[in-house]
TrEMBL record:
Span of the signal peptide: 1-21
GO molecular function: cysteine-type exopeptidase activity; dipeptidase activity
GO BP terms in the entry: proteolysis
Family from the record: Belongs to the peptidase C69 family.
This protein's record includes keyword Acyltransferase: no
Reaction catalysed by this enzyme: an L-aminoacyl-L-amino acid + H2O = 2 an L-alpha-amino acid
Organism classification: Bacteria, Pseudomonadati, Bacteroidota, Bacteroidia, Marinilabiliales
EC number: 3.4.-.-
Protein name: Dipeptidase
Keywords, ordered alphabetically: Dipeptidase, Hydrolase, Protease, Signal
Organism expressing this protein natively: Sunxiuqinia elliptica
Top-level division of the source organism's lineage: Bacteria
Gene3D superfamilies, per the entry: Penicillin V Acylase, Chain A
Length: 560
């Protein structure tokens, strides 16, 4: 979710404040193992606390209104009329298995503000989830809201999925003196996957295929009026006109899509230069010519675990691998503290921006399954903190209460809570950053055990809930799923607290405690066995000497 002037400039400007940046992948029925649709979302921000939102279904008397607050800041934006009935929503999925995610691409800076506008991108998501049942309905609700009440945000890409279809909607406001937004939405073809990560990705689109494409009537004419496009309608590229790709858009944003695609499909190496920010342009249109496709066909159908793993990446095994350069330190830490760009001798350099990043508030993998009743069919696999080290817990869309560990108000960024999953998971990751190569193995092992248990249990939970649904009614099924979700999420958080205690004991003070048969070793007198004290790798020592010369040389030592 990045506000882009030129992307690099903006990362420098807001790096200390928000530096929002999110990643979405979209999976169609034909591309998944079980025929479910899936979308992913990582809500990344240095000021976002990881919690699970919940709104119960409600009926509203005529004349009821609702206040709109900007999701990023909490700023009051205005009031809109409420609809007679709103659906229940858990996180970013409603009771009809409709799921929505987003990434902000910013786009043309002259379109970034609209006086009097009420609907920001976050409000569009959460208001729409309460009002729409399907992806197509959601597109209409979102675009109607923006046109009626004004669009408060800059350019935005939305992932929208129901049990049958997956769509990408991209919109950008019309700027000052105008109202609403220009937009285009395309359906991801069945059997394919797509993705977006803070850069508009829809280029040309079919103008006469309402089954697979929808767009605002002025999406092309508005660009012509502004002098941004003068070609034939069929040549119009939404992204190239409203959000041209530059180095930052490719290196910090599109590279994440490339990395996710690279995990599930061969042949992505042909786009390595593009991911590195080497943009090739048509000399006439100035449109980028070496872009990745909007969607690809994965080499095999994807499971929900495969999609979770798409969200876990630091460019491992590629030219951008964050664990291999000197910046990773002696323990291969694939994270770089912000800002994203820096200078040496007046030359600008950058850090990589990977899918997995330290400042994630929450993330999810949504799973919509058409063969089950809605309350059971929709699962929001929800996690907090860094995607690489989180655990995704199954929050069925029919639950009626949020687990204690994910509740809104259970701590915040300035108040620690012993029962908050966000704080417990951050405790583990921030400790693991100190000796990452060793500790991350324990984290990933426990993660695999917990998520494996959740995934293996899903068929039985589905069956039990469906039995209750058919024999005792939907309310009983929802109660069962609510209790299951709460128990598992809270137990997961308790397990993670135990993981921290184990890591603290094993790795305190740079030592590594010895273990035997699953227990920390003691000597024959009952005292702790002398710990290992692993040094640093040779290349790290060599780097120190290259930097410091004879400063640390032992007088009279070896080599004299």
């Amino acid at each position: 979710m990045i506000r882009r002037i030129s992307l690099i400039a903006l990362f420098v400007v807001v790096g200390a404040a928000y530096s929002w940046a999110c990643t979405n992948f979209l999976v169609t029925k034909g591309a998944s193992v079980d025929g479910s649709t899936m979308i992913t979302y990582a809500a990344d921000s240095h000021t976002l606390y990881g919690e699970l939102y919940y709104q119960p279904a409600a009926d509203h008397p005529e004349g009821t209104t609702r206040d709109i607050y900007e999701w990023d800041t909490g700023k009051f934006l205005g009031i809109i009329p409420e609809v007679p009935h709103t659906y229940s929503v858990i996180g970013n999925m409603n009771e009809h298995q409709l799921a929505i995610g987003e990434t902000t691409f910013g786009g043309r800076s002259e379109l970034s503000s609209q006086s009097g506008a009420i609907m920001d991108y976050g409000s569009l998501i959460y208001v729409t989830l309460q009002r729409a049942k399907t992806a197509r309905e959601a597109i209409k609700v979102m675009t109607d809201l923006a046109d009626t009440y004004g669009y408060y945000s800059s350019g935005e890409s939305f992932s929208i999925a129901d049990p049958e279809e997956v769509w990408i909607l991209e919109m950008i406001g019309k700027g000052e003196g105008e109202k609403g937004a220009v937009w285009v939405a395309v359906r991801v073809p069945d059997g394919y996957i797509s993705g977006h990560a803070n850069q508009a990705r829809i280029t040309t689109f079919p103008l006469n295929d309402t089954q697979n494409c929808m767009y605002s009537k002025d999406v092309i004419s508005f660009a012509r009026e502004k002098g941004w496009f003068d070609g034939k309608n069929k040549e119009f590229s939404f992204s190239d006109v409203y959000a041209p790709v530059d180095f930052g858009a490719a290196r910090f944003c599109e590279a994440r899509v490339w990395a996710g695609f690279n995990k599930v499909a061969e042949g992505m190496d042909q786009y390595t230069n593009y991911a590195k920010g080497l943009i090739e342009q048509d000399p006439n249109t100035k449109f980028a010519t070496n872009r990745m496709p909007l969607w690809i066909k994965p080499d095999k159908k994807l499971s929900v675990k495969d999609v979770m793993e798409m969200m876990r990446d630091h460019y491992e095994g590629t030219e951008l691998d964050m664990s291999k350069d000197l910046g990773a330190g002696p323990h291969g830490l694939p994270y770089r503290w912000r800002g994203l760009t820096w200078e040496v001798d007046s030359v600008e350099y950058c850090n990589e921006r990977a899918i997995s990043t330290q400042q994630t508030g929450f993330s999810f993998v949504s799973q919509s399954r058409s063969w089950l009743p809605d309350a059971i069919g929709g699962i929001l696999w929800f996690g907090v903190d860094d995607t690489y080290s989180t655990c995704y817990a199954p929050m069925y869309c029919g639950i009626t209460e949020v687990p204690e560990c994910f509740k809104v108000g259970n701590g915040d960024l300035l108040n620690y809570s012993e029962t908050s999953a966000f704080w417990i998971f951050n405790t583990v990751t921030n400790f693991a950053y100190l000796r990452y190569d060793a500790m991350i193995e324990h984290v990933r092992k426990r993660q695999a055990e917990i998520e494996g248990k959740f995934i293996a249990s899903t068929p039985a939970i589905d069956q039990a809930a469906n039995y209750l649904f058919e024999n005792e009614g939907e309310a009983k099924a929802r109660q069962f799923l609510t209790e299951y979700a709460s128990n598992e999420a809270n137990n997961m958080t308790a397990d993670w607290k135990e993981l921290f205690q184990y890591l603290l004991i094993k790795y305190i003070d740079g030592n590594v405690k010895k273990e035997k048969d699953g227990q920390f070793e003691r000597n024959e007198y009952g005292m702790p066995a002398s710990p290992d004290q692993p040094g640093y790798p040779d290349w790290w020592y060599e780097a120190i000497i290259k930097s410091t010369g004879d400063h640390f040389k032992v007088i009279g030592g070896a080599g004299h």
